[in-house]
Structures are given as C-alpha cells and as structure tokens.
Design brief:
Radius of gyration: 21 Å
Strand content: 15-25%
Bound molecules: alpha-D-galactopyranose
Structural class: alpha+beta
Shape: globular
Distance between the termini: 19 Å
Number of helices: 12
Oligomer: single chain
Helix content: 40-55%
C-alpha cells in the first residue's frame, strides 16, 4: 500500500497558514457477504479496509466551503446556503455539497471550512470511495460547527444525503465506513440499527479483485440496481408481508409464487440472509471451509437468481478458486466492479499470482495498486484517530 501524505501540507500550500486544523480519516469498505439485501433491512457483513480518505479541515468565519484534492480533481468552492442544489453531474463537488446539505437539513447551514483531501482509495473500484468522502466531509463540517452527532443521527442523514449525488443505496456503506473496528468484520443490522463487531480469524485474508469492467453508479447500472430493489419490494407486498424479516419467519411462501424474476428475487434475498447468519457462525468458529463455500453460494445466487453478475466477474471468481482461494464472489452492486476473494494467509501469494497470470495477463490497464488490493479489516471513521 502507498503511504498516505499528510493532508495538512496540502491545506497550507493551497490556503496558506491559519487557525486550528484537524484531520478526519474515513476508510473504504468491502462487503464479505449479504449482497442486495441491506435495502430490504436485512443484516450484512462488510469490513472497513486500510485504504482511506483523509481530509484536513479548518473552520472559517463565513459560509464559504473551499476544498482541494491532492488527486487530479482540483479546487472547488461554494457558499453553504440552506437548500443547496447539485452542480454538474459527475463533479466531485457534489459529494461536498451532499455532505453540507445533509448536515444543513438536520441542523441548519453553519460555518464553512477550508479543506484538503488526500486518498489512497481508488475511485469507481467498488470500495465505497464516494461514501467515504461524504462521511469524512460530514464529520469535518460537524466538527467545524462544534456539533456532536451520534452514529444513529449520522445514519439518518448520510444514506439519504447521498441521494443528492444520484445514488441511494442501502445503509451498508456508511455504517461500515463509520463504525467498523480494527480486526473485525461488522455485522450491520438495520431494524433496529446496530453494528456487532465479529473478530476475523488471524490467518484469514481477503483480496479485492477488480474485473476491469466498471459499473458506473449513474446510468444503466443504477437503473438495474433500482429494478432489483423494486422487484424485491413488489414481491414482498404481493405476498402480504410487512418486511423480509417477517417473511423469513414463514418458510412456505415461495410456493405461492409463480416462477419468474420476482420469485427468484425473493429466493435470493431470503437465502442470502440465511447465508449471512451462517457466515457469522463460521467466522466465529474459525471455519474457513464453510465461510468460503457460503461466498461461492452467494455468488451463484447473485448470478442466477438476481442476475447482477457478468461473464468477467464469473471468470474472476472461477480463477480465484482455481488459484487456491476458498471462496470468492462479486461484491457491491455487481454488473461489473469487483470480486472479494477469500483465502488462508499461507495461500495468499499463490492466489495473487494465479489471478495475475490467469485473469489479468493481457490486460495492459491492469494496475495492481488499484485492481488487486489486500483488504485487511481496519477501523471505521469513528474509531480512527
Ligand atoms: C451498493 C449499495 C449498497 C448495497 C450494495 C448491494 O454498493 O451502495 O448499499 O445495496 O450495492 O449489496
């Protein structure tokens, strides 16, 4: 992993010397299991990873928000007014605006900030870099305005606020980015909201492997995402349940459903929720074989029932297993993006090598620093110094 530069230097270089400065750090996340079920209120099991976004902040006395990114994104500046509107689609300023708007809606617009952002979290790589940026900026604005927000309050404003940028996922990404603990996966429950840290056995290793096909969060992929979400909700209504939790207490409901996408969607959601439970148990019992099998079953269900895989992701998963991984599956929304690969520490080098030789060979765009990432469970933003 590259060393992350100190964003305070960038802050001083861009905006000159000034008053008290503080740094907020927000990690990326990778979901181990529990895919396309967070938005139905069912538990998921992600980890926060070592790659992260760091932002240095200084409070201003007016309402101006100025931010610079050390990457190629450049300087942005706007006035923090009540009811902010998005700027041009795809511009990173929208994440800053989304954070300001989320804070503003709940507590009112406040004092602005000067901020500098550094990151070793690759964007558009399925690692929730946009949620990490939004979390870091939200925490910075709150601190600049001497406001303390609880985890619950943050979870109230953040997933909703990301809608501002055109994406409204479930709550998994923000919860993982905020509340993960070093060395642990996070069992995130939504009804009611709770995060239970599950220690990851010391010799378990995870890789995030990019398929090299990007699923842009806007456009077609977003429509597909929303369609999956809508189908899952429609079938629940048709069956007369108020929630998937309630549906799971009754085993016989799929029989009432004719074959088709709604039935498949229902079966994915309910079976994935059972796999999360079993995966937590396997992790607690250090049962790597079972954990790996559950990841593979999850991938099969996402591929065949929910149809959110792609030939490239399927090939990536297959290659990982052929190279010695105990399990692998697409992670995140799918339709491109990344797979999470699980193996024992002793097999890590062979799995990496196998993926490079058999999957990435012949792809001149392959960059190991961005596309094949060691993902060990790290702390979330609320638990980082
Ligand atoms: C995206 C969303 C998450 C979750 C996953 C699918 O990553 O941001 O909230 O819904 O898709 O599990």
């Amino acid at each position: 992993m590259r060393g992350l530069p100190d964003p305070r230097q960038q802050l001083v270089q861009t905006f000159g010397n000034g008053g008290e400065t503080w740094v907020v750090s927000a990690p990326g996340r990778v979901n181990l299991i529990g895919e396309h079920i967070d938005y139905h209120g069912l538990p998921v099991l992600p980890i926060a990873i070592g790659r992260r976004i760091r932002v240095a902040f200084r409070a201003r006395t007016d309402r101006r928000i100025r931010a610079v990114s050390a990457e190629e994104y450049g300087l942005r500046e706007f006035e923090w007014t009540p009811r902010l509107a998005p700027t041009a689609a795809g511009d990173w300023e929208n994440y800053l605006r989304a954070a300001a708007e989320a804070v503003g809606r709940k507590w009112g617009a406040g004092a602005g900030v000067d901020a500098a952002v550094v990151s070793d979290l690759p964007p558009a790589a399925g690692l929730a870099s946009s949620s990490a940026l939004m979390v870091a900026f939200t925490l910075g604005l709150l601190r600049a305005n001497q406001r303390r927000a609880s985890f619950e309050e943050l979870m109230e404003i953040l997933p909703e606020g990301e809608q501002f940028v055109g994406t409204r996922g479930g709550g998994m990404d923000h919860a993982a980015v905020l509340a993960s603990r070093e060395g642990c996966a996070s069992l995130i429950e939504f009804e009611p909201l709770a995060v239970r840290p599950i220690p990851v056995p010391a010799d378990w290793r995870f890789l995030v492997a990019h398929s090299l096909q990007t699923a842009e969060k806007s456009g077609a992929a977003r429509e597909e995402y929303n369609a999956r979400r809508a189908a899952g909700t429609a079938v629940l209504k048709r069956l007369g349940f108020i929630s998937y939790r309630a549906a799971m207490e009754e085993a016989s409901c799929p029989e009432k459903l004719p074959p088709g996408p709604e039935r498949e969607s229902f079966l994915h959601v309910t079976s994935e929720a059972w796999r999360v439970r079993a995966a937590v148990q396997a992790m607690e019992q250090n049962d790597a074989g079972t954990f790996g099998r559950l990841l593979l079953e999850s991938h099969t269900s996402l591929r065949d029932r929910l149809r959110v895989s792609s030939p490239a992701l399927d090939q990536l998963v297959e290659t990982a297993v052929e190279s010695g991984a105990l399990g692998a599956r697409l992670t995140g929304a799918g339709l491109g993006g990344c797979a999470v690969v699980f193996c024992q520490k002793r097999d890590l080098a062979a799995v990496r090598r196998g993926l490079i030789d058999r999957y990435y060979a012949g792809h001149p765009d392959f960059d190991p620093d961005r596309h094949l990432i060691d993902a060990q469970p790290g702390p979330g933003a609320l638990h980082l110094a």
